[in-house]
Amino acid sequence: MTDSAPPSRARTPWRAVLGGSIGNLVEWFDWFVYASFATYFAGAFFPKGNDTAQLLNTAGIFAVGFFMRPVGGWLLGRFADRRGRKAALTLTVTLMSVSALLIAIAPTYDQVGYFGAAVLLVARLLQGLSVGGEYAASATYLTEASRPGRRGFVSSFQYVSMTMGQLIGLGLQILLQHTMSDDALHSYGWRIPFVVGAVAAAVVFWLRRNLLETEVYAEEDARQDQERGTLGELLRHRKEAALVIALTMGGTVAYYTYTTYLTKYLSNTAGMSKSDASLVSFCALFLFMLLQPLAGSLSDRIGRRPLLITFGFGSMLGTVPIMTALSHTDSFAGALLLSLAALVIVTGYTSINAVVKAELFPTHVRALGVALPYALANALFGGTAEYVALWFKKGGAESGFYWYVSACAAVSLIVYLTMRETRDAALSRDRAGGPAASGKQQKTAV
C-alpha cells in the first residue's frame, strides 16, 4: 500500500463518513418504517380478524425480506468487489427507492384481495435485495476510507446512520399519531413515510453519484483480477465467512428484539399505548445512537474483542430479567430505563460489528465476504426474531422467546472468546490468509 494518498483522491473524514452513511440512513428508514407502521397497515392487506394473526402475516413478509438479503449480499457484494464501493452504494439506494414507492401505492385487500399483499411482498423482496448489499458496501467503504487507528470510530457511524433512519421513522410516526386520527392512520396515513422514503432515496442517489472511490479499492482495481468478488475466492476464506455468521447470530437477534420489535412488545405485552411505546423507543434509540461513536472509539484503543465479549455476557445473562421486567412495567420512565439498559449492552456488538467483519477479509473479496455470511445470519436469526417472538406469544409461552435470545447470545459469546483480535489488521491483499494481522498499516486519505 502507498504511504500517502494522491491529491486527486484526498477527502476529509466527514465527507467520507457522510458519503458512506447518508444512503444507509435512507435505506434503514425505509426498512424500519415497515416494522414500526405494521400495526397500522396490517389490516389493509389481510382479512379482518385477530390483531396478532394480522401482525404474524406482516411479520412473515418482513422475515421474507430478510431471506432475500443473502441474494442481495451475493449479487451486490460481488458487484461492489468488481465495480467498486461507490457503484454498489448508488445501486442499492435506487432499489430501495423503488421498493418504498411500491409500498406507498400498494392497493388494499378490500380493493383487490390478496394482490395488494403480493405487491407488498415484491417490495419487501426488493428491500431485502438492497439492504443485503448496502450493509457490506457501507461497511467496506467506511472501513477502507479510515486511518488504521480510527477505523472503529469511523465505521461506527454505520449504526449511527441506521439508528438515525429508525429515529426519523419513529419521529414521523409520533408526529402522525399526534396530528392524525387513529382511523386516518389505519386508512391512508401509514403510506406517508413510504412516500418520504422514496423521495429521500432519490436525493441520496444524486449525492452518491459524487462520491470518490476508496484508495484501497482503487489500488486493487488496477490489478484487473478476474477472481475479485467470486464465490470461489470467498471459499478460500470460508473460515472467516463462518466466523461472520457465528459472531452475527447473537448480535442480530438482540438488535432486532430491542429495536424493531420493542414498540410492538411494549404495546401488545406491557399494555402501553402505541404512542407511548413509540416515544419510549424513540428516546432509547436516540441515546443508543450517541453511544455508537464512543464505543467505536474505545475499540480503537482496547481492541474489538473486549466489547464483543461484554455484549455476549450481558445479552446472555441480562435478556430474561430485562424482558420480564419490561412486560410488567407500568410507567414511561421504567420502560425507558429498561430499554436503554438493553441497548447499552447491544452497543458492544453494533458499534464495531461492521469493522470487525471488514477487517477479516482482503480487499478483492471484502464486500462479498462481509455481505453474504452476514446476510445469511440475518435471514436465519435477525429476520425471524420478531416472528419467533410473536409465535411464542400466540402459543402462550412468551417467556420462551427471552431464553431463545439468551441462547443465541451464548453461541456468539463462544466465538468472541476464541476469535483473534482484528484491530491491527492491515487492509492489504494477502491471498494466503486474508488481511495480515500485523502492525503494518497504510496511511489512507481520511
From TrEMBL:
Its main location: membrane. It holds the Pfam family MFS_1. It comes from the Bacteria. Keywords: Cell membrane, Membrane, Symport, Transmembrane, Transmembrane helix, Transport. It is found in: Cell membrane. It is a multi-pass membrane protein. The keyword S-adenosyl-L-methionine does not apply. The chain crosses the membrane at residues 28-46, 58-76, 88-106, 112-136, 157-176, 188-207, 241-258, 278-295, 307-326, 332-356, 368-389, 401-419. The keyword Membrane applies. Gene3D superfamilies: MFS general substrate transporter like domains. Residues 16-423 form the Major facilitator superfamily (MFS) profile domain. Belongs to the major facilitator superfamily. Metabolite:H+ Symporter (MHS) family (TC 2.A.1.6) family. This is MHS family alpha-ketoglutarate permease-like MFS transporter. It comes from Streptomyces demainii.
